[in-house]
Amino acid sequence: MNIVLLGAPGAGKGTQSAKLVDAYGFKHLSTGDLLRAAVKEGTELGKQAKSFMDAGELVPDEVVIGLVREQLEADPEASYLLDGFPRTPAQAVALDGVLSDISKKLDYAIALEVDNEVVVARMAQRRVCRSCGFPGTVETGPVCPQCGGEMYQRDDDNEETVRNRLDVYDKSTSPLIDYYRGNGTLVEIDGNQTPDEVFEAVKAAIQ
Ligand code: AMP
Q: What stretches of the chain adopt beta strand conformation (E)?
């Protein structure tokens, strides 16, 4: 089974991804994590991506599509959970192409729907592990409970950039909802609930 998780920044994609990986053994592919790793390592791709990410804008389609193709082709047997990709209709079409090239298809597009003000409040609290990406909050404290790494606040989680990322989501990413409704893979879930309640709804939808 291969699924994508759709939702605005702060909708809970990272949290639900961790639960889905634990429960089903998906291979988790987060383009945000891959891009942050490239920035940290100072690769050519990271240099291209950094200014877009700092502004809360989307990294150009061809850069992100190339990155995802490389990952999927490297392990064509895995069951994939894509998190933060696709984010534009062009990326969705490209994903269908890459999956078909490796004899796979997308089974579900799970859209987590959350109110904008809930997102802004969540992002002020959000902290992630610099080493393993563990999704936490200020309450997690400074040490990652999963790997002992440093919990930090992402540069793009400040309120101004979050509001810009929400605008970008409305303009570029929400058209994907229609794309996936059209091909019958869309599952819409109320992401304003607690993480456990959201997870129960996700599990029920993909049984
Ligand atoms: P995320 O961790 O998913 O919130 O992504 C952080 C940032 O990485 C986004 O604000 C974009 O600048 C960039 N990014 C992540 N995934 C994509 C994508 N599929 N297409 C374009 N830019 C992306």
A: 3-6, 27-30, 80-83, 108-113, 126-129, 135-137, 151-152, 186-190
The residues carrying an active-site annotation are 13, 87, 126, 154, 165
Closest CA to 98 of 121, 115, 83, 82: 82
- By CB atoms closer than 10 A (0-12, 13-18, 19+), residue 126 is buried
pLDDT at residue 8, as a whole number: 92
pLDDT at 174: 86
Q: Is 87 in the pocket of ligand 1 (CB under 6 A)?
A: yes
pTM of the predicted protein model: 0.89
Backbone dihedral angles phi then psi of residue 175, each to the nearest 5 degrees = -60, -20
Amino acid at 81: L
All domains of the chain in start order, with CATH: 3-114+173-206 (3.40.50.300)
**Which atom of ligand 1 approaches the CA of 91 most closely?**
19
pLDDT below 50 — which residues of the chain? none
114 residue type, one letter:
V
Spatial contact of 48 and 57, defined as CB atoms under 8 Å apart: no
For the chain, what percentages of helix, strand and coil (3-state, to nearest 5) are there? 55, 15, 30
For atom 14 of ligand 1, which residue has the closest CA? Answer: 32
CB 13 within 8 A of CB 7: yes
Q: At what angle do helices 159-168 and 116-125 cross, to 10 degrees?
A: 140
| Whole-number pLDDT of residue 71 | 95
